[in-house]
Design a protein that fits this description.
By secondary structure, the protein is α/β, with parallel strands linked by helices. The chain is built from 10 helices and 14 strands. The chain has 2 domains: 210 residues, 3-Layer(aba) Sandwich (Rossmann fold); 67 residues, Alpha-Beta Plaits. The strands form 3 sheets. Strands 6-7-8-3-9-10 form a 6-stranded mixed β-sheet, with helices on both faces. A 4-stranded antiparallel β-sheet has the order 2-1-4-5, covered by helices on one side. It has a 4-stranded antiparallel β-sheet with strand order 12-13-11-14, with helices on one face. α2 crosses α3 and α3 crosses α4. The longest helix has 18 residues. It starts with a strand and ends with a helix.
């Protein structure tokens, strides 16, 4: 099985919202569709699923154009769509039957999903009585009720507290183990970094960067140095490292931890020598690749600079 998106394009009046977006998924897992609000993520998803027509391009599943009649897919939109005055169990069964399930099969699936998501106790409550996080889990159950092979999750972690976010993490991991294909749309870089093997970064409707996240990170190189000091060494460490023309660029300071941008290992070991010469020994000293957030910011900035030069 394979999802293939080819040159999808969409304009609204004179505004080019999505410009020839292409990507593919050749095996089960999670694909990250990344971008800020308004980048074109939701429009791209809606074109893939045929909810919105495209000006040009196509989206295919196993070589067949995606349509509700030819593919059982699940879509959790960013704008949640529950019937607030209806009981949770009733609307889950209703959503299942809309997707061709019998009443009995929809009921069994709803009960199983509610148990997995920890919302069984709310089955006979109206959706309006639930917290935002639990409403979101009901929406996710409605997305998965018919056991779709291809799943689109648009900002699924938005507004979730840490406990509910952990429940969703466990479910996503379970779905991947079950061989599902998931497209995860988000502007939360840490979430994408946790799940996605392949990504596409969108900015103003255009592809800024795409490919294997692992390969992208390796391409940027080990350019970050993280150092954590003992509490009593914090002030002295800062004065030692910040002195001199060869001081590294500080990216972020956290409590007793510092993250610097470096050109390579030589810069890192120069910092370590300076520390030990002054009797400061790190609790943590790590050379690592840049985070996806940093890659995203740099890619968007470079894309903008390229557009200006053009």
């Amino acid at each position: 099985m394979k999802l293939e998106v080819k040159e999808l394009t969409k304009t609204f009046g004179s505004k080019l919202a999505v410009d020839r977006i292409s990507f593919s998924m050749n095996e089960p897992g999670v694909f990250g569709l990344i971008g800020t609000n308004g980048a074109g993520k939701t429009t791209t998803i809606r074109m893939i699923l045929g909810i919105m027509s495209s000006d040009s391009g196509s989206a295919e599943w196993d070589g067949v154009r995606i349509q509700r009649g030819t593919l059982s897919f699940g879509y959790m939109p960013e704008e949640r769509g529950l019937y607030m005055k209806n009981k949770v169990i009733d609307q889950l069964v209703y959503f299942g039957m809309l997707r061709g399930m019998t009443n009995v099969k929809a009921m069994l699936s709803a009960v199983e999903l509610m148990e997995r998501l920890g919302i069984s106790e709310y089955a006979n409550m109206n959706a309006e009585k639930l917290s935002k996080g639990n409403q979101q889990k009901v929406q996710l159950a409605a997305t998965l009720i018919h056991d779709p092979k291809l799943i689109f999750l648009d900002e699924p972690f938005s507004g979730l507290d840490p406990v509910n976010a952990e429940v969703l993490r466990d479910l996503i991991n379970s779905l991947v183990e079950d061989g599902k294909y998931i497209v995860l749309s988000s502007h939360q870089m840490s979430t994408v970094e946790e799940y996605c093997r392949d990504i596409l970064i969108l900015h103003n409707g255009s592809t800024v960067l795409k490919g294997s996240l692992d390969e992208i990170k390796r391409g940027f190189g080990a350019t970050n140095l993280v150092i954590r000091t003992r509490r009593e060494d914090t002030d002295r460490f800062a004065s030692v490292i910040d002195g001199g023309e060869d001081r590294p660029e500080l990216i972020e300071k956290r409590a007793y931890e510092y993250e610097y941008r470096i050109k390579g290992e030589e810069d890192a070991f120069r910092v370590l020598r300076k520390m030990t010469e002054n009797g400061i020994y790190p609790v943590k000293f790590e050379i690592k690749e840049p985070s996806l957030r940093e890659i995203f910011v740099k890619s968007v900035e470079d894309h903008g600079a390229g557009a200006e030069r053009a």
